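Design request, tokens follow.
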């Protein structure tokens, strides 16, 4: 008997229901290998596009995941592989190049890299139009009707910004968001979930509590999950040789997929 069937039997569930649950399918996450998507330029934005296979796409035809990267952007292999994992979960997934070919260096601690200058050059006035162009491409050229944002560190803030009124996305997930403002939380008009790291200078426990309170005030469905033994960045750049970090990274991914599946297909 397969493990899903055993699980179903123990819980008294119909087997078909239990085995169709994507959350139990651990083969959709890839931590290593070659990206399967491709980069294309649309609306003057370079986009990494990862397509589900036909069977999976048929099950989720009108929805897409808009993947908003950390400061390392598209050159970081883990970003492309994680976008591919969302495609294997059935979602057409597009990650725009948020930095117009000029992402942060591999390690923001390298001498000479000025993080405050980098962030000052990539504020909402620069980044919002790139994301808006990507949403326009998804909706107007690909006919996508519902969009989920998933954002990591730098991109987490934008995952929230784009479920505000009239911004074009419907549901959001953010792992360890950086610089997420109170006003940006209060402005959400769709469900929002967060995956938080135990050790995160950008979101220490007191800030996490504030964010939870603001989510309550925003009056939208929300979920905040805290992963022990993890640090800022774990949703993308975890050391997957360490079982604790691997669990956190996969947990954050499945948390996002379940969140999107629930609000799009429940
Ligand atoms: C296209 O994007 C580049 C930045 O990557 C920008 O400098 C340029 O002005 C844009 N062109 C148009 C026509 O929007
Ligand atoms: C980093 O950039 C900021 C402006 O964004 C500037 O004020 C500061 O002097 C720079 N630091 C260094 C070490 O160059
Ligand atoms: C990753 O985790 C493994 C297992 O805990 C450890 O042996 C290794 O040193 C870690 N690698 C880095 C770069 O921290």
């Amino acid at each position: 008997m397969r493990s899903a069937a055993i699980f179903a039997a123990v819980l008294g569930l119909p087997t078909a229901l239990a085995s169709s649950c994507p959350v139990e399918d651990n083969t959709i996450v890839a931590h290593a290998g070659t990206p399967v998507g491709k980069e294309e330029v649309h609306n003057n934005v370079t986009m990494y596009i990862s397509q589900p296979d036909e069977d999976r796409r048929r099950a989720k035809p009108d929805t897409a995941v808009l993947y908003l990267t950390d400061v390392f952007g598209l050159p970081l292999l883990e970003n492309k592989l994680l976008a591919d994992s969302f495609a294997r979960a059935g979602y057409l997934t597009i990650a725009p190049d948020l930095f117009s070919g000029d992402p942060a260096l591999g390690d923001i601690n390298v001498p000479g890299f000025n993080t405050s200058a980098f962030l000052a050059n990539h504020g909402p006035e620069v980044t919002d139009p790139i994301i808006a162009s990507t949403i326009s491409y998804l909706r107007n050229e690909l006919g996508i009707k519902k969009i989920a944002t998933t954002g990591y560190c730098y991109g987490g803030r934008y995952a929230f910004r784009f479920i505000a009124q009239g911004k074009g996305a419907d549901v959001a997930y953010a792992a360890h968001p950086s610089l997420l403002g109170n006003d940006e939380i209060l402005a959400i008009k769709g469900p929002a979930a967060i995956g938080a790291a135990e050790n995160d200078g950008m979101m220490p426990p007191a800030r996490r509590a504030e964010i939870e309170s603001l989510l309550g005030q925003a009056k939208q469905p929300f979920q905040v999950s805290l992963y022990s033994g993890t640090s800022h960045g774990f949703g993308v750049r975890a050391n997957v040789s360490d079982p604790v970090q691997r669990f956190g990274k996969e947990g954050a991914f499945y948390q996002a997929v379940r969140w999107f599946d629930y609000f799009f297909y429940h």
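Comment from the thread starter after seeing the answer: thanks! The radius of gyration is 18 Å.
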